[in-house]
Amino acid sequence: MSASGIKEVVESNYGQVVECLSVEAHHALEEAKGILSKKELDLIESKKTNVEKVSVLLNKLMTKDDETCKKFFETLIIISPNNIFPMCLENLLMTAGDEVLLPQELRESNSNDTAHSDVELIATDNSQTGRKRKAAQVANPKSTNVKHVKKGKFCKAREVKSSSIAPFTNTLNSEFQEVDNLSFQAGEQYLNLPAISDFAEDYKSLMIKNVSEKYEANLAKEDQMKQVIIDQTFRSLTMKDGNVAKLKERIDASRDDVLSSPGLEENQDTVANLAEFLNKKHVSNCRVHILLGKAGTGKTKLMHKVCYEWAQGTLSQFQYVFLFEFRQLNLIKNSIDLKSMLFDLFLQPERNSHAVFRFIIGNPEKILILFDGFDEFVGKAFVHTFAVSSDPMAPLSVGELFSSLYNGKLLPGCTILITSRPKDVLSLPLDVVSQVGEVSGFDECKIEEYAHRFFKDSKQNHRAICHLQTNRKILNMCYIPAMCWIVFLCLERLLTPCTVEPKLPHTMTQFYIKMLTVFLSKGTSSKQTSDNIETRLLNKHREDIHGVCNLAIKGLQASKSVFYLRDLLSEKITNFASSYGFLTTFEVKTIDQYQENGHAFIHLTLQEFLAALHQMIDSTISDQILKSRFYLKSKWTSKNDMKNEFTDAVHIFLSGLASKGCKQFLSTLANKSEMWVQRKQRAILQNLRKLATTNLTGPKIIELCHCVYETQDCDLAREVATQLKSKFELRNFRLTPADVTVLTFVINSGASCICLDIGGCAMDLECVTILGTCKNIEVLVFKSRKYEDRFAGTLSEIIPKVSSLKKLILTSCSISVKGITHLSSALKVCHHLEEINLQDNELGDAGIAALVDVLPQMGSMRKIELGNNNITVDGILGIANTINTCSNILDIHVSDGGNVAKVRFFTGSTANPINRSLSPSMECEASHETLLRKLSLVNCSLAARHVEALGGILQRCPLLGCLDLSGNELKDHGLRRLVDILPDFHISKQINLSNNGISEDGVLCLASLLKKCPRMVEVKVSLKHDQTVLLTFSEQSKDTEVRDELNTQPMEFRLSSTGDSKIKPVPLKKLSLTNCCFQLKHLEELGCTLENCSDLAELDLSNNSLGDAGVEKFVELLPKLHVSRLINISNNFISLAGVLCLAGCLNSVRNITEVELSLGKNGKGLIKFHGKCRLQRNKEFQESSLSFETQCGKQDISVPKKIRLEDWDMDVETMGNLCLILEQCSGLTELELSNNALSAEVITELLNHLSNFCDLKILNITDNIILPEAILLLANSLNICENVLKVEVRASGRASIRFKKNVYRLEGNGKKPEPPPSRVLSLKECNLCKMSVESLFKILKHSKNLTELDLSCNLLGDEGLQYLQNSLPKLQVLKVIDVSNNRISPVGVLCLVESLHTCSNVTEVEVSLAPPGRSLIKFARRCEKKVCSVKECKFKERDLFKFFSIIERCTHLMELNVKNKTVSIRLVDSGWQLADYNSTRIDSGAQHPSLQLISLYQCGIEAPQFLRLAPIIKQCPQLLELHLFQNKIGNKGAEVLADVLPVFRRLKKLSLESIGINSHGMVTLAACLRKCRSIEDINLSQNELGEEGATELEKILPVLEQLKKINFSGISTAAGLVGTNRLAMGLSNCTRLEEINLDSLVLSDSGALLLAVGMLRMACLKKLNLRSNSIGYKGAEHLARGLKGCPAIVEIDLYGNSIEDVGTMKLADVLPVMKHLKILNLTQNNITATGGERLAQALKQCPSVEEIHLSRNKIGDQTAKKLSEALPKLPCLKILNLHSTELTADGGESLAQSLALCPSVEVISLPENSIGNKGVMELAMALQKMTSLKKLDLQLTRFDDSVAEELTAGLAYCPSIEEVVLSWNDISDEGAVKLAEALPRMLCLKKLDLEGNKITTAGAEKLAASLHQCSFVEVIRLWKNKISKDREQSLQEQDSRLNFLSV
After folding, report:
1. Rounded Cα–Cα distance for residues 929 and 927 (Å)
2. Per residue in 1279-1288, pLDDT tens?
3. Which ranges in 1515-1671 belong to alpha helices (H)?
4. N or C: which end of the chain has fewer CB within 10 A?
């Protein structure tokens, strides 16, 4: 029956429609906005009541077309939150114009199916609103499913009250009225469910029929083609754990193939069928499921399987299943609504689509929607940004529809299943995903099963399986079902019975080449598949193959894998590709029901292979384009990464096509020669080599290995392995068996062993098995918490096979007892293994026991780490007991309750003095002939109850060096137990019992050990804060030499009882009891304990509470204690009385040498005794006392003594009392008063007693404010006491008075006093002015024998110097007066110069006002020659005139040096004259016959001035040296000079550097030099030569017979080679030359030849500087021949030339002749390893070499190894410079080992060499021998914190180190802390460069803190570190020596 139209229905029910719409008028008006015009809407809004508004609205709707009206009512009914119309009226409106059943027919239909149906009314919980609503449930006994109708957003049910319902109009169908009224009478809602359900059931039946017919047809087709059928037998569906957030984290970390295959770390549920997967219950309300899988794993077929199983009734919970493929959705360009999408794109209902759609909207939980191939969706990148809508009728784009369904806006509650490749799933918002599954493809078992079904011939099947098992790469392809079908299809062809020994492919590329020919050979017999037939087929189909390849590359460029008619190139190519199996064809239905064919390659990898093939055979793609397009893919990419035309495997196929075996194949397809193909292949191979040298991530390393494997090029693999040697670090991505296979191939191809570090990488056990075939792994590292015991078991099978393995690290691998049991059984046969790290596992005590049981069988083991393995105290003791069971254990360290546990072993090289296997802290132990072992159990919760077990272990342990039990819980009880058994221990060095809760009673118990244990030499206890308890023993071996100064035991040197002079060392003991709260009551007991303890060296009782009474008691006990070195009683609350009591000890105790007392904050109190240290410092006294005792046999000898008093409140009376005490002390040699605020009166009192201190040698006053009157008092001590030798005073608070050597009074036999020596007075920085000088000179007039007077850094000024000049004749100064830095002007300078004339015994005046300033007056008794040197004195013209006036009056002036930049000299005809031309003149005719040297440096003299100066210079006929440095006199000045020079008959040295002359001036000079026959040294550098000048020099140089040195550096040669050749010719005739400097002169090979000819006659030549002379290898050959005639050569400098290997070898041949060679500089000469090795070999025969410079040459490791052989034979070597010479770790290691044998080396420069941690570690060990090293440069050598400790320890062994450069490395805070700790020990260090590292604020703060102890350090550079600008500024303000700038 046909229903009425929509307008008819509205007109017939107008009143009821108006009534219903007025209730929801706002919804109606909102919906009408899209239909009506603005004018019509305004009219409606103008009405007042809703009824009026609705009436106008309906009238306007009636003017619209039927479709618009119906759309309005449909949308209004569906989206309205409440039910607007009664159900009967709603049905009429929804079905208007459609075919519908009559009510009677409906009832008859329902009676057949639902005769016994019950309608139940149930309450359901609406999750959207939270309210209980009612719905009807219809139960059908014939249906297997129970239908639920939930009331939701789109499922309407209204509550009808009888009072609110208007009478229905007569127009309504009476039968519908009857049904509706029946419902009303029941008081319930009426939904008319039977009608809608029947329409829904009809549509379901139609869908089941359609799906079944379609997919059953496909099954037969697939089985016929032997493809992987849809049966799930051949597919594994696994569901990942429900933590989707964790999945997202894993996907973010690894963007490719995240779920490719199950890894060891995966926890998965294997789902038997799809129903279980879709029925999996989750807490989340999300109904979105994602199914991932690689291309070809069968995701699409599985979606078809879902539809098919639903049709078979398996998924009965779903009413409908809709399948949409994105390749189909991509064709929809227009907007569609949900209804159109469901029905038009999948299946159209046969009738009443509205009712079906209504059912779908009302029952979303019964709907399953499948979206297949999300990775193919063109809008996948914009899913996050698509707009979403909840309106099912709204027209939306495909992307918006998908996003609305995905996010639950449309059909909330429906189930959505999406398939995708893993790498594309990130485009989806994963927070709404319920669960994730994976189609994981085949495993090996399923591959074999599929092979049995594929191959009919069993032999063929067996051969195919065998080939796959031996070829991992091809087997890996078969894990993908689609690829497996392709592989078997090819193997079926290749393994036919007619084929004899077929060439089966071994790489992916080879396989695809075979596949191409197999596909092309369809229709040919197997007998014809020879190489010739394959070539014929390729030639036949060349054009078609090119077309398919072009289609493939264009698809990849456009990110397309599906092609439609508009994408295809031509119908011919399409037919070809389809007919030969390259393309598959499928039908796609569009929105308008149009069927279109789509095409896709049978697998994506085939498309990639053909795309790669296109790159290699297309002539339009050049080599350069190919190289630019080739790069590695990374599994770590971001969504924002730039898209590119290559995909996952294109670069791999390109690499495979670059192999030699593909040359003919490519040549045939390209129709080009093999040479053309080879060029392209070479481009790919060059790229691979280049990539190997870059810094690759782990995934890219694997990609590179895949590429290399595809080439099958062993040479390439060897090169790549060499480059990747230190880079095999793989982190946090999945490794497949194929990955490990190619990785093993590359590693095995290398020439050396590598470290393979795998951290957090998912892998299966097969990967581990493959690693067993790797032969070049030296270090193997695994880190992942999910590897567990299965992994350990598999690993135990392979490690015995890896014979090169030395170090195995298995940290955080969750290995338990079971796993370690397997490993232990394997480890005992791994005799090659040297180190194992099992930290952070779950071994427990049982696992530890299993491992330590096999330790005795591991003979090569060096180190095992077992920390953080849930170890208890029993387990710790078990580890400790292995020191008895395993004899080769060196060290056991367990701490932090077992979180740290290390065991180290003896090795054959341990006794090496430079032990590379041990840390520097172990070196002392390693140097012993028999090494001592160490046991450390720190913070292990050991208590008193464990002492017995521990004691049993220790009593059985021989040769234990150190025992560390600190941080445990022994307390006093446990300590006493330990002390009782301690004498039975065999411990030779130290026991540490710190932090064990010991009290004062326990301390006294420890003190008794000095008597109980004869070998114990020290007990050190401190109970403050962190307790310290250390027990130290003496060494057992008498011959043991302990080199560590800090560990040297105290020794006493005593005279033998027979009176002979032999000194016998006696080991002494030390007791330190600090911070123990000792008081007077404890002293008596301590005294009894120590009374019989002989040989006590030191007693430390500091920081206790003795007080004055305790000190007095202690002084009484002092003679009984027998302390021989030091007693420390500091910080014991002592007052002045106690101090004086202690001072009296100097008299009461004979062998006290020093008393140091302080009443300040520190309360210092030290008493030192006669011992080794004091005798070393007083060697003279030691010799005299020993000599006297030998002669006289007397014992009463006065020992040199010292007293230091700090922080006293000193007055005159106190000073007098102290002096009276000290006068009684015989042998007092030093008195130091520090920080005592001494006044002038106190100093006077002290000086009055000076004469009574007969033995005093030095009096020091420090940290005292010294007033001017006190300064003069101290200076007057020269007159007060005749024994005073030197008085030194500083106003800053320091003064010292030194006395004559002591005259010992030895009872009648003494030495006669020596004559009085010279005396010195130094008053530097005392703020002395003119008035002070007057007072001072009154004192000095009476001082005899005053040698030196230092008045520098005062305030004398010009007036003070004038007074000084006037007083000089009255002073008796014998040598020098220093008045530097006294704020003088040029006037003061003239006063000093005047002294040359006014004072007859002044011999030299030297003045410089430039920083740092220097003003000296030197004296001589007989002044025969005088020298005046004036530099930068800021002379003006007037000052210069006065200066020269003074100079003219100075007789005997031999040297005059002037340097003045500020003013030039103006001269007039009659001499020098002032600027105002007054009458003041200087006679230019005065002669200076004694003047021998004139030096005018940068004086601004130009030609006019020099013209006037020349007559003055002429008056110095005896001149020997003339220097005119950098005065631009020019050519005119040269003419003047030519007139002057002949006057100087004795001139030997002429320096004319940079005087501004050109070729003409050079000619002039050359002509005059002919007359200077005595000249020996000529410097013409930085001038212009010219051809004429060169010609003239060529003529005159041979005439200069005395010429020894010539300097033409920086000469500008405008004449080019002609000029330089002539100059070289002239030099070749100067046979007496000793030095030739032609720096930066373009000599070239021809000039070198000319020079070399002359060198054959230069037997005296010592220095040859030919830097940057454009000399090539030929010129080097000439020079080498010339050097044969120079046996005295000392220095050869060829920096910056290009002599290359040939020239280097020629030089190397003559080096053995040069026995005096000291410096060899061949920097930057294009030398490689060939020349470098020859040179290094020759250097062995040059023992005098001091400097070797080979920087910026590519000499590499080979040269370094040869050089390391030569270095030990160079005992004089000081500098080794190998900057940027391409060294690696091997070369660095070799050099370091040899440098250890060069103790004289001072500079080591190795910047920009990749020596890495290994090389730096070796160098650090070698530093311990380099006591002369001053500079170490390791800039950019690629090392990090792991070697920082060893490096800093090595630097601490270098006492002379001044500069350390560690810039541009990977040093972080850890390394900075190590450096900060070592800085105070580098006492000569001036500069530390840490620029460009990874140091943060924390590290910089540590360095800044250490600078407080390092006043000697000048700068620490920290530019370009990870420190904020604010912190940089604050740190620099804290210490300006921290430099954060670029310079």
Report:
1. 7
2. 888 888 889 9
3. 1530-1540, 1559-1569, 1586-1596, 1617-1628, 1644-1655
4. C
